[in-house]
Amino acid sequence: MTVQVVWLKRDLRVFDHRPLFEAAQHGRLVPLYIVEPALWQQADSSARQWRFVRQCLEELDQKLRHLYGQGLVVRVGEAVNVLCDLQQAYGVNALWSHAETGNAWTYARDRDVAAWAREQGIPWHEYRQDGVICRLNSRYGWAEHWARFMADPTTPVPESLQCLKMASEPLPEAEQLCPASATLPDACPAAQAGGRSHALRLLDSFLHVRGVNYAKGMSSPLTAETACSRLSPHLAYGTLSMREVVHACEARKAEIPAGWGRALAAFTSRLAWQSHFMQKLESEPALEFYNLHPALRFERQALDPVLFDAWAHGKTGYPLIDACMRMLHATGWINFRMRAMLAAFACYHLWQPWREAGLHLARLFIDYEPGIHWSQMQMQSGSTGINAFRIYNPVKQSRDQDPDGHFIRRWIPELKRVPAEWIHEPWRLTADLQRRYGCLIGTDYPKPVVEHESAARAAREQLHRAYKGTEARHASRQVLDKHGSRKKHAPIPRKTANVAPKAQMSLFE
After folding, report:
1. Is the pTM value of this prediction over 0.85?
2. CATH code that applies to domain 294-466
3. 274: closest CA among 485, 141, 130?
């Protein structure tokens, strides 16, 4: 007896799951998830991420049992060892999975699995799921390729599976699996729930209710919490496929809903943008660790523990910066504009290494997607050589994005009595006003750790010096040739108009 092993990684669903569908055509199979302790000990992993994944796995197990009478098979250990055990016990006929653009650890693990499969003479069938192209030689035509890939029909749920009856190991608790982190003292009390049922409700509410103000509301933390889709962790761990979300968006566009045109166009563009940035890491895995542009190779090498700790715990003295960081601690999510501002403040104003700042943010984000994250950390720190220096003014952003201070007061109770005219720069309060509003600067709430205007000026000057000269310009052209966008994202081909995504999704859900 031999079995087909369907190895689930960041694709925790049964709908639009081509490896599962294809394996089902070849006989008895094992739907396998491997809990890899070494992965969850990595510096970019956290308990909050595992709790979300665990919820997704629990719901997936229930779905498999409901559809096929056999749940998910969970094994704890190293992937090669787990596969070896299955091979010895049952005989593995083939391995099926989606390709993954993960971090350096998962890349090395996949290489080990590929070597094992070759030694055993076991074919490993890998399928794309996010528009990222392995071994891409040129970015020319990438946008059109992405559009064609997303326009392809979704893969149906298999009508039947011949699942091998096997016992499953219990899913570990987060405290057993993930190391404690000094910069993550909380348990993320307001985290999003995992599982495909939550993802489908979010998608429906976004496309029919919440998303109408997406283009206008996604920048401010006041409105982004509801205006944004909130699908990012579900796309990161695959309870939804990128293609089904694109199809659902195209179907909504076809309804020509009044007032939705700009929102739907902006959202579709962001979906393509996600794969665009993941492609950067796929094409150059080293950017997780090293500056994309060599001009900054020796800059920002030293971490200042005092400045870094203030930033990491939301105690910089800049209210919007601190409110965003504290929201991240509590929820595991914040909107993109505020993510960019947090990264830029750490790397420009505080002049901290982007790698260390990136690791802290990665652990905070429940929706951590390595391809997007490390590409963005390089971009938001000025390390690419091809992007403008986005040095956000923390006071201006505070006034623009939270003019009345409602968001700040929600997350910084020390400032709850400070009126709007002072809340963006509370250090300017006189001693009498500080006592009146119950917030002593330097005692109840910290003074600014740096003077933001002079810090921004110093960072800009250092960057201009680093990128000056013929050699640096030549390196910038090389980075642009490899990673730069060639054109605007192509429109989705009209063949998606024949797909009824909402009905298609609900058919098996």
Report:
1. yes
2. 1.10.579.10
3. 130
